[in-house]
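Weekly puzzle thread! Below is a chain. First person to post its structure in C-alpha coordinate form gets bragging rights.
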Amino acid sequence: MKDYTTMPQETHRLELTGRERLTVSGVEDVERFDETGIIMSTSAGTLVITGEDLHIGKLSLDGGELHVDGRIDSVSYEDGGGSRGGLLSRLFG
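Winning reply:
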Protein backbone atom coordinates (compact mmCIF):
# COMPACT_ATOMS: atom_id res chain seq x y z
CA MET A 1 0.00 0.00 0.00
CA LYS A 2 1.33 3.42 -0.94
CA ASP A 3 1.80 6.09 1.69
CA TYR A 4 0.25 9.20 0.15
CA THR A 5 1.12 11.38 3.12
CA THR A 6 4.81 11.44 2.16
CA MET A 7 4.49 11.19 -1.63
CA PRO A 8 2.95 14.20 -3.38
CA GLN A 9 0.50 13.15 -6.07
CA GLU A 10 0.48 14.94 -9.41
CA THR A 11 -2.78 16.57 -10.38
CA HIS A 12 -4.42 14.66 -13.21
CA ARG A 13 -6.72 16.52 -15.55
CA LEU A 14 -8.22 15.91 -19.01
CA GLU A 15 -9.52 18.69 -21.23
CA LEU A 16 -11.14 17.67 -24.51
CA THR A 17 -12.03 20.39 -27.01
CA GLY A 18 -14.46 19.01 -29.57
CA ARG A 19 -12.91 15.77 -30.79
CA GLU A 20 -9.84 17.47 -32.19
CA ARG A 21 -7.69 18.52 -29.21
CA LEU A 22 -6.94 16.84 -25.89
CA THR A 23 -4.79 18.22 -23.08
CA VAL A 24 -3.71 15.80 -20.35
CA SER A 25 -1.90 16.79 -17.17
CA GLY A 26 -0.31 14.42 -14.67
CA VAL A 27 1.50 12.49 -17.45
CA GLU A 28 4.44 10.45 -16.20
CA ASP A 29 5.49 8.59 -19.37
CA VAL A 30 4.33 7.90 -22.93
CA GLU A 31 4.58 4.14 -23.39
CA ARG A 32 3.43 3.84 -27.00
CA PHE A 33 2.35 6.17 -29.78
CA ASP A 34 1.24 6.06 -33.40
CA GLU A 35 -1.39 7.87 -35.45
CA THR A 36 -4.21 5.59 -34.23
CA GLY A 37 -3.41 5.30 -30.52
CA ILE A 38 -1.48 6.65 -27.57
CA ILE A 39 -0.79 4.79 -24.32
CA MET A 40 0.54 6.80 -21.40
CA SER A 41 1.16 6.41 -17.70
CA THR A 42 -0.50 9.10 -15.62
CA SER A 43 -0.80 9.78 -11.92
CA ALA A 44 -4.31 8.24 -12.17
CA GLY A 45 -3.28 5.08 -14.07
CA THR A 46 -2.70 3.97 -17.64
CA LEU A 47 -4.60 6.13 -20.13
CA VAL A 48 -5.39 4.90 -23.66
CA ILE A 49 -6.42 7.32 -26.42
CA THR A 50 -7.61 6.05 -29.80
CA GLY A 51 -8.46 7.91 -32.97
CA GLU A 52 -7.12 8.85 -36.40
CA ASP A 53 -4.29 11.13 -37.46
CA LEU A 54 -3.21 11.59 -33.85
CA HIS A 55 -0.21 13.83 -33.28
CA ILE A 56 1.51 14.88 -30.09
CA GLY A 57 1.66 18.65 -30.34
CA LYS A 58 3.46 19.27 -27.06
CA LEU A 59 4.99 16.95 -24.50
CA SER A 60 6.48 18.19 -21.26
CA LEU A 61 7.30 15.36 -18.87
CA ASP A 62 8.88 17.87 -16.48
CA GLY A 63 5.52 19.63 -16.24
CA GLY A 64 3.57 16.41 -16.84
CA GLU A 65 1.52 17.85 -19.70
CA LEU A 66 0.69 16.43 -23.12
CA HIS A 67 -1.30 17.91 -26.03
CA VAL A 68 -2.86 15.61 -28.63
CA ASP A 69 -4.29 16.78 -31.95
CA GLY A 70 -6.29 14.68 -34.44
CA ARG A 71 -9.66 12.93 -34.45
CA ILE A 72 -10.12 11.48 -30.98
CA ASP A 73 -12.48 8.49 -30.83
CA SER A 74 -12.02 7.30 -27.25
CA VAL A 75 -10.29 8.04 -23.98
CA SER A 76 -10.17 5.19 -21.47
CA TYR A 77 -8.25 3.94 -18.45
CA GLU A 78 -6.81 0.42 -18.34
CA ASP A 79 -6.87 -1.54 -15.10
CA GLY A 80 -3.37 -2.01 -13.76
CA GLY A 81 -4.03 -5.47 -12.34
CA GLY A 82 -4.02 -7.89 -15.25
CA SER A 83 -1.84 -8.57 -18.22
CA ARG A 84 -1.90 -6.13 -21.08
CA GLY A 85 -4.48 -7.75 -23.26
CA GLY A 86 -7.78 -6.68 -24.62
CA LEU A 87 -7.76 -3.20 -26.11
CA LEU A 88 -4.01 -2.76 -25.89
CA SER A 89 -3.24 -5.95 -27.79
CA ARG A 90 -5.84 -5.08 -30.43
CA LEU A 91 -4.28 -1.65 -30.86
CA PHE A 92 -0.62 -2.59 -30.92
CA GLY A 93 -0.55 -6.39 -31.03
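Puzzle host: Confirmed. Bonus trivia for everyone else. The radius of gyration is 13 Å.
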